[in-house]
């Protein structure tokens, strides 16, 4: 008998999932189901809770690789690999949802995609999402990667990429590993230059998103894009 088996049936994660659905479970209970078992004297829910505290909540989990997960006492290679695989499957499911040929009509869908793709990265990356005239995803490209604090972005290269794929619109995304979800002066300057470069080839810059861990800000939603275009 495991320590979880000693709990009343109505408190066991598996039984609660079967009777109430996965959404009824806490983050720790969901992790405990993935673990399957705890360690000597510590059941899986306690082990999961300790990992969540170390990661500052569920949003921090995908930022840990297998070696990082194993730094938590009680999590060995098998449990760490299982978690890493689960996180990757979740990330791929979100990415696939944006690449199914449906038009992008929901801003939160794009944010979820960007968060899944870049929220866990530890150095700055820049990606470009190319869209057709119906706002369907044509392709998604990493165009640069840099350091902890910056990555070079070249508007002419992005314009050339858009032309080569016959894109009608572009969404640019980069991450801030620092966790600060605010555009820098350099971000705003680059966005203005990119807007001009794309206008020359009749391609629209729909948005510039900045990903900082679980937080994603949109320059279009914040009004920065309109100000830069009018300037």
From TrEMBL:
Every MPN domain range: 103-225
Tree of life domain: Bacteria
The record's InterPro entries line, in alphabetical order, gives:
MPN (IPR037518), RadC_JAB (IPR025657), UPF0758 (IPR001405), UPF0758_CS (IPR020891), UPF0758_N (IPR046778)
Database matches in Pfam families? RadC, UPF0758_N
GO MF annotations for this entry? metal ion binding; metallopeptidase activity
GO BP: proteolysis
Q: Which UniProt keywords apply?
A: Hydrolase, Metal-binding, Metalloprotease, Protease, Zinc
By sequence similarity, the record places it as follows: Belongs to the UPF0758 family.
The protein's name: MPN domain-containing protein
């Amino acid at each position: 008998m495991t320590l979880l088996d000693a709990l009343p049936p109505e408190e066991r994660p598996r039984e609660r999932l079967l009777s109430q659905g996965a959404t009824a479970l806490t983050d720790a209970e969901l992790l405990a189901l993935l673990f399957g078992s705890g360690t000597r004297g510590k059941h899986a829910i306690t082990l999961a809770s300790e990992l969540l505290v170390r990661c500052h909540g569920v949003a921090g989990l995908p930022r840990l690789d297998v070696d990082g997960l194993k730094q938590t006492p009680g999590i060995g290679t098998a449990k760490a690999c299982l978690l890493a695989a689960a996180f990757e499957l979740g990330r791929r499911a979100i990415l696939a949802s944006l690449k199914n040929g449906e038009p992008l009509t929901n801003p939160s869908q794009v944010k979820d995609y960007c968060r899944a793709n870049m929220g866990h990265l530890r150095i700055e990356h820049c990606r470009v999402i190319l869209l057709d005239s119906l706002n369907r995803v044509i392709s998604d490209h990493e165009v640069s990667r840099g350091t902890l604090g910056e990555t070079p972005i070249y508007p002419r290269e992005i314009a050339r990429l858009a032309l080569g794929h016959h894109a009608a619109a572009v969404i640019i995304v980069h991450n801030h590993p620092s966790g600060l979800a605010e555009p820098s002066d350099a971000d705003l300057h680059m966005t203005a230059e990119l807007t001009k470069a794309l206008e020359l080839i009749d391609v629209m810059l729909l948005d510039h998103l900045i990903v900082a861990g679980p937080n994603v800000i949109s320059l279009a939603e914040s009004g920065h894009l309109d100000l830069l275009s009018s300037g």
